[in-house]
Amino acid sequence: MSAAPTHAHGTPVDEALVRELSPARFPAWADLPLKRVTSAGAVNALYRLGDDMAVRLLRAPECAGDVEKERR
């Protein structure tokens, strides 16, 4: 099941995409269980990775500024 984009230029994020991105950056985590987290949020797609981590991916490029806002 994919997390459908909610923005005009959004990219669908699904488990296959998360699995494709994760091993390149975090090979030690490649075999951990992955499960989509149901969320009402429109900016990020959330996935549980293993027992104590999460993957959060932006659904649309125009939301990238939100990351900086959250950091501040």
Strand order of the largest sheet: 1-2-3
Total helix count? Answer: 2
Name the beta content range.
15-25%
Domains counted in the coordinates: how many? 1
Q: Report how far apart the termini are.
A: 33 Å
Kindly list the characteristics that best describe this protein:
single chain, 72 residues, alpha+beta, three-stranded antiparallel beta sheet, 2 helices
Give an account of the 3D structure:
The chain contains two helices and three strands, in the order H-E-E-E-H. It has a three-stranded antiparallel β-sheet with strand order 1-2-3, with helices on one face. The chain has one domain. It is globular and about 30 Å long. The protein is α+β, with helices and mostly antiparallel strands.
Blueprint of the fold:
Layout: H1 15-25, E1 34-37, E2 44-49, E3 53-58, H2 64-71
Antiparallel strand pairs: 1-2, 2-3
Question: Could you give a short description of this structure?
Answer:
The chain has 72 residues and is α+β, with helices and mostly antiparallel strands. The protein has one domain (15-71).
